[in-house]
Each structure stands twice: as C-alpha cells, then as structure tokens.
Amino acid sequence: MSDSSTHKIRRLNETHLTTAYDGFPLTSPKGMAIDQENPLVIYVVISHGLVMLNLLSGHAVTLNAAASAGFGDGQLETSKFNSPRSILQVSASSFLLTDTGNNRLRIMDVENETVSSICTGEFNKNSLFA
Question: pTM of the predicted model, to two decimals?
Fold first, then answer.
C-alpha cells in the first residue's frame, strides 16, 4: 500500500505491517500498481508524476522529470501531471491514470514511453440547472 503521510510503500502480511520502501523520490505516494509481468516492480503515483520501484533491489526511478504540477502529453520523461491519484494496469505495457488536477484520464505506455489523454471533462455546475 502507498502511505502518503509518511512517504513510504508498506507491505501487509498475516501478522504485521512492514516498510517495503522508504525514501526519495516517493513524495506523497497516492496509488500504485503491481506490474503483472514482474510482481517485484511497482508503479507509484506521486505528487506530480510517476515512479517505477523495484522492490528486490530497492532501486527507484522517476519516470517523468516534472518538478511541478502542469499538463503535458507526449514522451513519458517530459510529461506533466497535476494531482494524479490512481493507477491501473490494463495490459502488459499500459496503465490508466487519473489526473484529477487536469480533469483527465490518461494512458501511460511504458514500452513506447508515452503518455496520452484519452478522456477529458470539465464539471459545469450551471448545466445542472439549465
């Protein structure tokens, strides 16, 4: 589980909770997905992007270089997010992400190293009363 208050990835078994990873670059992890092909690799949604974490080696790689919130589709390294919240693996190399600050559902393709918006929407409270 991702623990956003303490910036850690936790592991829960039958008897206790342990820390699986504690350190940079996991700033406020919001959600994670376990790689279906390699269960020792997880993808973690952080404040403004994504981290790939190898639980066996303890090696963490920030997948996008954005240091601040924003919006940007395209190459994974230069993509930007604004308050991403959850991630779900949908194929061997594709993940869906909710990007709440940008009001978008986005897809990350780790094989091609790209991010694309697949659904966007704005809530208009006035349309409820029209």
Answer: 0.77
CA separation for the pair 60, 65 (Å, rounded): 13
Residue 82 phi/psi, 5° resolution?
A: -135, 100
With beta carbons less than 8 A apart as the criterion, state whether 30 and 10 touch: no
Reported confidence tier of residue 117, pLDDT bands at 50, 70, 90: very high
CATH number at residue 69: 2.120.10.30
Residue 6: give the domain boundaries: 2-129
Summarised one tens digit per residue, pLDDT across range 71-108 is 999 999 999 999 898 899 999 999 999 999 999 999 99
Cα–Cα distance between 88 and 108 in angstroms, integer?
Answer: 10
Domain count, the chain: 1
| C-alpha–C-alpha distance, residues 83 and 94, integer Å | 20
- The DSSP letter of residue 80 is B
